[in-house]
Amino acid sequence: MGSADKTSNPARKARIEEMRRADQARERRNRILAIGGSALAVAALVAGGVFVVKSQSGDDGKDTSADGKAASGHFVTGADGVRTWEGKLGRTHVAKTVKYPTEPPVGGDHNQVWMNCNGDVYTRVLDNMNAVHSLEHGAVWVTYNSKASKADVDALAAKVRKTPYTLMSPDDAQADPIMLTAWAHQRTVTSASDPNVDKFLEKFVQGEQTPEPGAACTGGLPK
């Protein structure tokens, strides 16, 4: 069984590694800023003034989940077996729970915090609203249910850990044993050794479908 690293062309692999290094540098800067911010907060308390500022990255945080239009449309299946979402996929940061029309979801309104997706393997079910944010950053999400064999789960986990901009988690609500999801794209694979695993990773990890190419896959929710 090959890995996504081996199937990537040199230019693409170099680009992803460059983004990974930038992501790590961004995380280091954020830690430094957080330490500085804590010091400023202490100084403000000493001075007797406490100010609370609520901020959100990206859009204005308007909650549109109640209108049921976070995602609308349908899948169109290509000759390669990849299902492409035709229709609307919202990108608003929301607080209320979004009911997605697919499981796993392929996009739509989502939480403002993403799941870490730098080759992260989770053994718990994820909140779809955080995972969708990872898809927006160009990650591929590998999911499996209880019908997947332990051998396949272990092999997929090893592949994900070696591949930047990926994450993996169980999802017993999905229809098929193993599924691969990117923003607006999804497919089922038969096993970890299915050649379509590498093909999907090659095409969709930071692929052309990515709404926010180069956005961080660290600094979000951890394990």
Automatic annotation (TrEMBL):
<dbReference type="InterPro" id="IPR021454">
    <property type="entry name" value="DUF3105"/>
</dbReference>
<keyword id="KW-0472">Membrane</keyword>
<feature type="transmembrane region" description="Helical">
    <location>
        <begin position="32"/>
        <end position="53"/>
    </location>
</feature>
<feature type="compositionally biased region" description="Polar residues">
    <location>
        <begin position="1"/>
        <end position="10"/>
    </location>
</feature>
<keyword id="KW-0812">Transmembrane</keyword>
<protein>
    <submittedName>
        <fullName>Membrane protein</fullName>
    </submittedName>
</protein>
<feature type="compositionally biased region" description="Basic and acidic residues">
    <location>
        <begin position="14"/>
        <end position="23"/>
    </location>
</feature>
<dbReference type="Pfam" id="PF11303">
    <property type="entry name" value="DUF3105"/>
</dbReference>
<keyword id="KW-1133">Transmembrane helix</keyword>
<feature type="region of interest" description="Disordered">
    <location>
        <begin position="1"/>
        <end position="23"/>
    </location>
</feature>
